[in-house]
Design a protein that fits this description.
The complex is a heterodimer of chains A (114) and B (112). Chain A has 114 residues and is mainly beta. Chain A is built from no helices and eleven strands. In chain A, the strands form two sheets. In chain A, strands 2, 4, 5, 6, 9, 10 and 11 form a seven-stranded mixed sheet that branches. In chain A, strands 1-3-8-7 form a four-stranded antiparallel sheet, with no helix packed on it. In chain A, a hairpin with a 2-residue loop joins strand 5 and strand 6. In chain A, 36% of the residues are buried. Chain B has strands at 4-7, 10-14, 19-25, 30-38, 45-50, 56-59, 62-67, 72-77, 86-94, 101-102, 106-111. In chain B, strand 6 (56-59) and strand 7 form a beta hairpin. Chain B is globular, with a radius of gyration of 13 Å. The chains are: A mainly beta (114), B mainly beta (112). Chain A binds chain B through residues 4, 31, 33, 35, 42-45, 48, 50, 55-56, 58, 90, 92, 94, 97-108, and chain B through 31-32, 34, 36, 41-46, 49, 51, 89, 91, 93-105.
Chain lengths: 114, 112
């Protein structure tokens, strides 16, 4: 079974631009979560989706948004990019939603904002 | 109260030795405690996980010890191998929630 795939793998943007990242979960998985990883802040939860509904959101500004489609694929969007948005963005999928559900992470999208 | 504190930040162990990484938490609503392993250029991968009703869980060379009263848990890697060199993250989640709260990570280096 194929793992979680994320596209693109690398991205360079300039301040003020917007970006859309894509995540395809493991086949059959219905829950998708997004995390931001930086050297300073570590791994921080962005949001989680289940059945096309956002179930939980982390402490990030409204510039960060996401959605999930009926095939469980998910996208996240960051508008008006800032230098501090440079990070590795990780997507994780799980079969169901809930504590204890194993989350399988993709390789991430590395975003550099210049 | 949502924090998970992890130590040490970095650890060097000789091949064959025991690697120990510790985590502490404050939120007593946490009910699931996984450990993730991350290699450079890869996403984190689940290594082993424990619930607070169990004090220890062992899978191969990896053991989680859990102390509910002290709100601490630790990862022990027995017979550490160079292939274990990676960054390890402890995490926790609240009952009914998917969101993982991660520790800051420990960069483990196993010297041959």
């Amino acid at each position: 079974k194929a793992g979680v795939t994320q596209t693109p793998r690398y991205l360079i943007k300039t301040r003020g631009q917007q970006v859309t990242l894509s995540c395809s979960p493991i086949s059959g998985h219905r829950s998708v979560s997004w995390y931001q990883q930086t050297p300073g802040q570590g791994l921080q939860f962005l949001f989680e989706y289940f059945s096309e509904t956002q179930r939980n959101k982390g402490n990030f500004p409204g510039r960060f948004s996401g959605r999930q489609f009926s095939n469980s694929r998910s996208e996240m969007n960051v508008s008006t990019l800032e230098l501090g948005d440079s990070a590795l963005y990780l997507c994780a999928s799980s079969l169901l939603l809930g504590s204890g559900e194993t989350q399988y992470f993709g390789p991430g999208t590395r975003l550099l904002v210049l | 109260q949502q924090q998970v504190k992890q130590s040490p930040q970095s650890l060097i162990v000789q091949k064959g030795g025991i690697s120990i990484i510790n985590c502490a938490y404050e939120n007593t609503a946490f009910d699931y405690f996984p450990w993730y392993q991350q290699f450079p250029g890869k996403g984190p991968a689940l290594l082993i996980a424990i619930r607070p009703d169990v004090s220890e869980k062992k899978e191969g060379r990896f053991t989680i010890s859990f102390n509910k009263s002290a709100k601490q848990f630790s990862l022990h890697i027995m017979d550490s191998q160079p292939g274990d060199s990676a960054t390890y993250f402890c995490a926790a989640s609240v009952q009914g929630a998917q969101k993982l709260v991660f520790g800051q990570g420990t960069r483990l280096t196993i010297n041959p």
